[in-house]
Write a structure and sequence with these properties.
- This protein is of the alpha/beta class.
- The protein folds into 4 domains: 4-208, Thiamin diphosphate (ThDP)-binding fold, Pyr/PP domains (Rossmann fold, 3-Layer(aba) Sandwich); 219-408, TPP-binding domain (Rossmann fold, 3-Layer(aba) Sandwich), CATH 3.40.50.1220; 424-561 and 619-649 and 682-711, Rossmann fold, CATH 3.40.50; 574-607, no CATH class.
- It is built from 24 helices and 28 strands.
- The strands form 7 sheets. Strands 3-2-4-5-7-6 form a 6-stranded parallel sheet, with helices on both faces. Strands 11-10-9-12-13-14 form a 6-stranded parallel sheet, sandwiched between helices.
- Helix 1 (6-16) packs parallel to helix 7 (160-171).
- Residues 492-565 form the Thiamine pyrophosphate enzyme TPP-binding domain.
């Protein structure tokens, strides 16, 4: 019997194409793959003779975690990983992670086996288990086809190299994204001779399957955009994911600085505008502003509505057309540039979405290349002072610098305030310590800068905080894309399926050390309590221990799902009933307004104060023990603590306090492990600082994951 099968060729092809890691969830369709990996181990495949395999196998007890890990790996390295799952059911269990890698334009190679096609012993690998009849569906790849860049079936050992490399070529070309390969079990069990294995491995050099080269602007288009920006009185740049290419960030900052163009990140997935850039406007997720909010000339929405020239680069949705205070002026000149899919062909969009309907120019061009072309034209125009606008640019620069400095100063002031905690002077039978998100994030950022040797410059943050997305981007102040060495980096999933961050952290950690040297000092996951549960922590923290990928998790615990409640309030801020609401509603809403017969005697009351548990969006009255879940999954390896929440007098005592002052110290139980932390009473700031710093040290010094369950005001 041959020692090589078609599965040997498949694995070798992945490796030859640059795939170093495979995130796997094995099943009955993978016997030959498992056998070939054992063949490699027995042969001692690496240079020191240890029992290793190529690609490196990462066992994932959950398929969505596997794909999320592969996404994190690709985001950290820019290179695809493989994901191997089990027939139709494993394909379905990839779940919402399929949506995320699609929307994130993340290259990943997904392989799934399929039920055997023979049932009477005609072929090796034929059906011999009852489930193989259950899993033989009419069109397995249709489960994920609309999210894939390419779908292919493996039909024989001889055609595997070309089929796989073609798939990888598509996955790594713009618009990058996932590809799906599948094969029947008999195909992957096909025996081949050593000579055929060698010939197949060498017959298709990688160079003949190149990734598409970046596209450029036509010279006339580069000139048109450059002239428009230089001549504009109120120009604006909008981007969401330009920072996937860190060199494009340099080009954007250069253009912004040359012409004094404010730059805005809209729903970002990666750092595209450094937080320190004086012409940066910060980040927006296009959330509605509260009624009655006064106009702020430094606010991104003001820049959106008053801009006379807008350059949209690599952004799926630069504004929401139905919201007037986000919509650009009808007279604004709009230019849309995207390196992969400027027409957003995978979205069912109404007119005006993404700026396409209003644009003067829509063009496919790589951000680094296109911006470089525009910069060259701009330099020539500035030398000639085309439009005579130098004075107005200087005035604009001064306004933007003042606005940038004011925004950071306001954030510093807000982040230093701990207003929402019960002080010892008001203690009775129970105290409650809660944190504001700005205060928590400011403390986290400063702790990272203080504790890490790089002062946070080699820290990666995975942001899946959902309704707190904008605050995390603003208060963590990310400075550059991954690999830029400019400062803290931040990424998000790029999609809307929650549960990416935990698995993404494992993949990013593996990717960060894939070249033999750790790229990150520290990886931090910031999630809501809902996102934490969606992330399948029972699988992730087991993986983190097994594969030595420790990271810090900060849970923004507001007691449930805040996003559905906010969506409800955006459509139904009040509710009308034909009869008077019960007394509990009146207690929740002191300002219930009763109509005096104008609407048939109905009562109208606001829904803002309705608690999450009543709305069925809350996790009370007995919320999960998030730290306990992570610890149990890792058999005690994860260290964790709950910071804040309800504290009984036994757990919170005040010493050296007289006449109800708050000058003393507070001793509070901050973790389920029985550890206590002392902190001067400062609204809980000291407790939070100590917990965060302890968590960071656990990750850095003991190489253990740490989980901080931080209590916010409930929903």
């Amino acid at each position: 019997m041959s020692t090589y099968t078609a599965s040997s060729v498949f694995l070798k092809t992945l490796v030859d194409a640059g795939i170093t890691h495979a995130f796997v969830n094995w099943g009955s369709d993978h016997p030959a793959l498992l056998a070939d990996l054992e063949r490699q181990r027995a042969a001692g495949s690496n240079s020191d003779g240890a029992a290793a395999t190529r690609p490196e196998i990462v066992t994932c007890p959950n398929e969505m975690v596997a794909l999320s890990s592969a996404q994190g790996f690709a985001q950290a390295t820019g290179k695809p990983a493989a994901v191997i799952v089990h027939v139709d059911v494993g394909t379905q269990s990839l779940a919402g992670a399929v949506h995320n890698v699609d929307r994130n334009r993340c290259p990943v190679v997904i392989y799934a086996g399929a039920s055997p096609f023979s049932a009477h012993g005609e072929h090796k690998g034929g059906r011999n288990e009852w489930i193989m009849w259950m899993q033989d569906i009419p069109d397995q790849s249709s489960v994920v086809r609309q999210y894939m860049r390419h779908v292919a079936q493996l039909n024989s050992a001889q055609t595997i190299p070309g089929t796989v490399r073609r798939a990888i070529q598509v996955a790594t070309s713009e618009p990058k994204g996932p590809v799906y390969i599948w094969a029947r079990r008999e195909v992957m069990e096909e025996d081949i001779s050593p000579s055929l294995f060698d010939s197949l491995s060498l017959s298709k050099p990688l160079e003949i399957w190149p990734t598409l080269s970046p596209s450029a602007l036509a010279p006339s288009t580069a000139s048109l955009i450059a002239h428009a920006l230089v001549s504009a009185q109120r120009p604006l740049i909008i981007t969401s994911h330009l920072g996937r290419n860190r060199n494009a960030v340099k080009a954007l900052v250069e253009l912004s600085s040359l012409v004094v163009i404010p730059a805005l990140q809209v729903c970002p997935t990666v750092v595209s505008v450094p937080s320190s850039h004086p012409f940066g406007l910060g980040t927006t997720f296009l959330t509605p502003r509260p009624p009655g909010t006064p106009e702020d000339v430094d606010h991104p929405y003001h820049h959106l509505t008053t801009a006379d020239t807008i350059l949209v680069i690599d952004s799926e949705l630069p504004w929401i057309p139905s919201i007037p205070y986000q919509r650009p002026s009808p007279s604004a000149r709009i230019f849309v540039m995207d390196g992969g899919d400027p027409l957003k062909t995978t979205m069912k969009m109404s007119m005006g979405g993404g700026g396409i309907g209003e644009a003067e120019v829509v063009v496919r061009a790589d951000a680094e290349v296109g911006l470089g072309q525009i910069v060259e034209v701009v330099k020539g125009l500035l030398v000639k002072d085309v439009g005579g606008a130098q004075t107005s640019r200087e005035q604009r620069a001064e306004r933007l610098r003042r606005g940038h400095a004011r925004r950071l100063a306001e954030q510093d002031q807000i982040g230093a305030s701990f207003p929402s905690s019960t002080s010892p002077s008001t203690l009775s039978s129970q105290a409650r310590i809660t944190y504001t998100v700005p205060a928590l994030l400011t403390t986290l950022r400063k702790s990272i800068e203080r504790v890490t040797t790089s002062q946070g410059k080699r820290t990666l943050v995975l942001n899946e905080s959902i309704t707190n997305f904008p605050l995390v981007w603003e208060y963590m102040r990310p400075e550059g894309p991954i690999g830029s060495e400019g400062g803290l980096s931040m990424i998000s999933s790029g999609g809307s399926s929650l549960g990416w961050a935990l698995g993404g952290a494992v993949g990013a950690s593996l990717g960060g050390r894939s070249n033999g040297e750790a790229k990150f000092d520290l990886i931090v996951v910031i999630v809501g309590d809902g996102s934490f549960m969606f992330g399948v922590p029972s699988s992730v923290y087991w993986m983190a221990r097994r594969y030595d990928t420790p990271f810090l998790t900060v849970i923004l615990n507001n007691g449930g799902w805040r996003a559905p409640k906010l969506s409800m309030l955006s459509v139904h801020p009040t509710l009308q009933l034909s009869q008077s609401p019960d007394s509990s509603i009146h207690q929740l809403n002191d300002n219930v307004q009763t109509a005096n017969g104008d609407i048939g005697g109905t009562d109208e009351y606001p829904l803002t104060n309705i608690p999450g548990d009543r709305l069925t969006t809350g996790f009370g009255p007995h919320p999960p023990d998030y730290v306990g879940i992570a610890s149990a999954a890792s058999v005690g390896w994860v260290w964790g603590t709950k910071v804040g929440g309800d504290v009984s007098p036994k757990a919170l005592t005040v010493t050296a306090t007289t006449n109800a002052t708050v000058d003393g110290e507070t001793e509070k139980l901050v973790g389920g492990n029985g550890e206590c932390a002392k902190a001067d009473w400062d609204g809980g700031k000291g407790v939070l600082e100590r917990a965060i710093e302890e968590g960071i040290r656990k990750v850095l010094e003991e190489r253990r994951s740490a989980v901080l369950d931080c209590v916010l005001e409930g929903i």
